[in-house]
Automatic annotation (TrEMBL):
It comes from the Eukaryota. This is Calcium-transporting ATPase 8, plasma membrane-type-like isoform X4. The lineage of its organism: Eukaryota, Viridiplantae, Streptophyta, Embryophyta, Tracheophyta. The gene is LOC110758353. Residues 190-276 form the P-type ATPase A domain. The chain crosses the membrane at residues 306-326, 346-371, 579-597, 603-622, 651-669, 707-731, 743-764. It comes from Prunus avium. It is a multi-pass membrane protein.
Amino acid sequence: MCFSSIFAYLMLVEKGRRACFKRSPCTCCCTMNIPDIRTSTTGDFGIGREELVALTKNDDVGGLEQYGGIQGLECLLKTNLEDGINGEDADVVKRKSFFGANTYPAEKSKSFLTCLWEACHQDISLIIFIVVAVASSVMGLVTKGTRFGYWEEGGNVAVVVMVNIIVKAICKYSQSLIHNVKEEGRNMKVVVRGGKQVEVSICDIVVGDVIPLNIGDQVPAYGILITAQSLSIDTSRVNGDNNIVSFHASSGASRLKPGSEIADGSGTMLVTSVGICTKSELSQDIGNKTTLEEVLNEVATSIGNVGLAAAFIVMMVLLLRWFMYLVLIFGVKTKPRDVIEEVNQIIIIAFNIAVAAVPQGLPLAVTLTIFSATKRMVADNAFVRRPFACVTMAVVKNILCDKTVLTLNEDRCQPGVKEWVQLCQRDGVKVRMVTRDNLQTAKAIGLECGILDSDADATMPNHLFDGREFGELTDDRQRQECAKRIKVMAWCSPDVKLLFVQALKQSGEMVAVTGYVTEDAHALQQADIGLAMDIRGTEVAKESSDIIILDDSFATCVKAFKWGRSVHANIIKFMQLQLTVNVVALTTNFMAAVFYGHVPLNAVQVLWVNLIIVALVPLSLVTKPPADELMLGHLVKPGQPLKRYVKWKRLVFQGMYQIVAILIINFQGRSLLKSYNRGHAIKIIHQVEARKKGILSKPKKWITSNYLFMGIAGTILVSQFIVIEFLGKAFSTVALNQKEWQFSLTLGFAEMLFAIILFVKYLTHRN
């Protein structure tokens, strides 16, 4: 009877407590000695986001006691340690709005219209060209009417430029879709809401949720342990420690971090911080990570400015010449219509010079090259989250690898890892290993993987280093000098790993770092390239990375280096090609305009050449996966000026050849061909240079293994033939006879032969 009475009393108390929670969860605060800490930042709740983040990261019991313990936190968060939040949609929305959602900040997929606007906004010269082209067409219509020949040039330029913008927008839109693929919404988790267990997306977990923990579960957010029954948690995915931590019922104030796995037993936890809040301190502006992008912007800006200056000079010269000859010298009276027509023609000439200078193909070619490479890298188990990361990989000279990336378990390396390490070391990429193991274990793994050459190498000053000592260094210069010599670091915690990365960067090194645990997020973001492991990696680590290694293999990291060097080399080749095209077109048009009063290459023809190069040449450069020999390639060091990227001797010789050829044909074409017309156009074959090494060594094998490249070259020739023979009015060209075709092709192949001679001379000099 006594037992029954006590049991009935306890049931009534529990029923009253639950009723109190359902009516007003915070009313129980009145019966508890909880300090009033509400401020303007706490909103409808008794505690704010900042306080919760600080509480979550503070493991001492005193930090929780100032809020009245876990029971006080229960009231402040308007939840119930057994029944959870009430589960109403309005309450969930309010908690997401105030405390944040359990997702990590990432760029949203852009709409096509947004990409279209960015394509226009980032290259304002395109809009200027369209405006000038339309204005020119309107002036032609006003002075000459609707007859074909007076308005179509400006209209054609506008169409070609708009096609350029649309293609660029399509590339940006495709990248936006690919690089924002998320899998978070597919992960489901059981939570307690309104006294019932319900299954929700991991993204819908909110602060105040009560989550049951069972064997095999992964902790989805930061929180505090409520109950524990023989509970053991594996924290290796949080901090890299291979520790199984045991919890008991008395350890209810223990903090839990996302990524921890339940190894045994069961329990419940109270969610105190979710994704966007816990990662807020990592969401810093890491800026532009690649020097090549700066170089490309410098190229476009510099040559564009030169073109605009040249166009202004030509316009002033032609206006002054026309005014002096017709008005001052001859005293010719002109009608307003004639003045408008002459000014319109001069503007068109200046416009053609400006168009010839702007490297329209460069930004789009870079986008196409990177877009194609990133898609192909997925097949090699490397998912690129930030497009320019694959370019930055080309100039990275250090890679900090976790032991787990190099090994299969504690004492055994991944198959072939020693050969991959030696490939990197031979080609200037220093592989450095960090591990939380002791010095002897770290030394053994370093020797087996080839990072340490021998026992004697391990005894060299600072080659094998204790991470605890490194963390205690206070002099920045000493730490930097020490970091540059370290090959293997033992007892390396995530905090020391971050110091290691920072020291190398401060000493002028570019660094890639691998990571998979939650606490690696800082190092992944601080490094020039962050490589997160997909299989073992936590969401925090992946979201902080530039590239995700899908198979957790060191071999894939090396493949990412090769892809980076391949993309970098291809972009440099295209930049060289684009510079040659623009220098030749600008110089030719400038000289012809000043001395002859017309331009041999009009805007439509120049934009057509750019469009052909943009659309097809980048594809021909990425038809094959990168070879090991790319690791031997000479790359420009970060921070070097543009002049170090450009092969000036080749540009000068090839540019002079093309300029002289075009000017001779332009001024002496009638005597050379008897039937020369200004509309004749010469198309020089450029893209063969990109693969001439393979042509010289094994021509038959090269042709049979490069069908796509041969198809692209054929497409260019066929399209050029169609333009010249059938689209003369639109492109201001005339059809060529057999003799003229032979002459044009001879000039083109002669220049190719000239380029091959230069290349053979370069190989001889290098060997």
